[in-house]
Amino acid sequence: MRLAAALFALLPGLLLANPVVRLDTTAGPVTIELYEDKAPKSVANFLQYVDSGFYDGTQFHRVIRGFMIQGGGFDQSSQRKATRAPIQNEADNGLKNKRGTLAMARTGNPHSATAQFFVNLVDNRSLDFTGKNSRGWGYAVFGAVTEGMNVVDNIARERTTSQRLNGMMARDVPEVPILITKAYRLDGDSRAADKEQPTSEEKDTQ
């Protein structure tokens, strides 16, 4: 009885545990905790892409030292991948763009985020939510690196250049492609990915 009671007492904590995702990259592994309670739409969206294998073989296509590294939108051939519909911006969730946090990339439209994400290399206060207007929405934080921040920093040190992405010239692209070879859950959740066909394309963070 005592053992059962102890297990029952632990159950709520286990049920509330945040999802954890591993990104195996050509620079090393990165482990990410996702804040499902603070950014449920962003986390659910990210996990759909993880579970479907969307991120496997994509590259970190935008690397700016002292700012952030961005990925999740282009394959090894630098072609843009078709994505699902955009999601609602959740940057008003109280989370800040601090060093090591994961946030949704988007265009100038506050509610245009699809698959691309970035990891903050420093505390980027200019990206935080300040108001529900075009200038104030900011970028939605939905997770943080728990292991492998040294890998993220190493990626940030890579030499970059201007290269073509999806046929258009882009700045801050690593000279040697840095790939996410596989993205997968570490939390043992085997929920099936949504099979809906992609419906939109994503542009880089403005």
Characteristics:
206 residues; alpha+beta; Cyclophilin; 10 strands; 17% helix; disordered C terminus
The low-pLDDT segments are: 7-14, 190-204
Task: State mean pLDDT (0 to 100 scale).
Answer: 89
C-alpha Rg (nearest Å): 17 Å
Number of DSSP helical runs = 3
- According to DSSP, the number of beta strands is 10
How many separate domains? 1
CATH level-4 homologous superfamily:
Cyclophilin-like
Describe the protein's architecture and organization.
This protein has 206 residues and is α+β, with helices and mostly antiparallel strands. The chain has a single domain (17-183), classed as Cyclophilin, CATH 2.40.100.10. Helices cover 17% and strands 29% of the residues. The chain is built from three helices and ten strands; from the N terminus they run αββαβββββαβββ. It has an eight-stranded antiparallel β-barrel. Strands 8-9 form a two-stranded antiparallel ribbon.
Short characterization:
With 206 residues, the protein is of the alpha+beta class. It is 17% helix and 29% strand.
Helices and strands, with pairings:
Elements: H1 2-15, E1 20-25, E2 28-34, H2 40-51, E3 58-64, E4 68-71, E5 101-104, E6 117-120, E7 141-147, H3 149-156, E8 160-165, E9 168-174, E10 179-185
Antiparallel strand pairs: 1-2, 1-10, 2-7, 3-4, 3-10, 4-6, 5-6, 5-7, 8-9
